[in-house]
């Protein structure tokens, strides 16, 4: 009962905080930002919207849903359902994503945003504690088909988004011009890719835990984990560091200056895009073709070789199209 009440309380606090940010932004009021952080830069950045929806509205909807759902659970005397727990897990990963953006992309901190990340983390930990380890394994086993279906859906979204994103990026960088519309398209696609990565992560963990002993000895699972790690790293650098800096550079001028910095960013974008694309296709084949006879060393070496070849090819192709 105490954990339920704590979750409800955290949900109410989060709802109040999210609506406070939204109301101040609408009225164009400056946020009071404790700890000498730069809240204004963060809450008005291009990352303050997800698929065109203000992040604070998504937060208000999440916290309101959590508070209502767990209050209903208390009144009915039942445990939270599987979808409610998965919702808290998704919100936790989203808060990690937003915190990463503050740290490595914007390089500015928002006290309210960090507080919201702490609230979502607290709700997730409490929801996990409520289920207990045994209850979590039972829950994941019950939703195995849903997790497998969601995993395939995440793969389809990520693979399609990564393919379109790389083709668009290659086209945009070929003439060294990125319009505001093209920049917005890239942002939306990158958000779709990150959503797919979150789905894959949640589903992967959900499928792994009930069958940990068997999967830990599976070459396909270990290779999938290895490729997923490479995918997350390359996507993080591409979408949260390199591309935003290119867009910022492009929107300030009609064309990129012929500086070493611009050239380095352009090459990095193409190389990381190629590695990300190879990673998505590798992960797709590993998940959909589990009968392929693979060893961990051989599969890892083949993936690294393919990623290196893709990065080298993208650099050569980029040089030819820019001349």
Automatic annotation (TrEMBL):
Example GO molecular function: quinone binding
GO cellular component term of the entry, any: membrane
Boundaries of every Vitamin K epoxide reductase domain copy: 2-131
Keyword Transmembrane carried by entry: yes
SMART domains: VKc (SM00756)
Residues that span the membrane, as ranges: 6-22, 57-79, 85-105, 112-132, 152-173, 185-209, 221-247, 268-288, 300-318
Keywords: Disulfide bond, Membrane, Oxidoreductase, Quinone, Redox-active center, Transmembrane, Transmembrane helix
Source superkingdom: Bacteria
Subcellular location(s) per record: Membrane
Pfam families in UniProt: VKOR (PF07884)
Family in the record: Belongs to the VKOR family.
Protein's name in the database: Vitamin K epoxide reductase domain-containing protein
Taxonomic source organism: Candidatus Andersenbacteria bacterium CG10_big_fil_rev_8_21_14_0_10_54_11
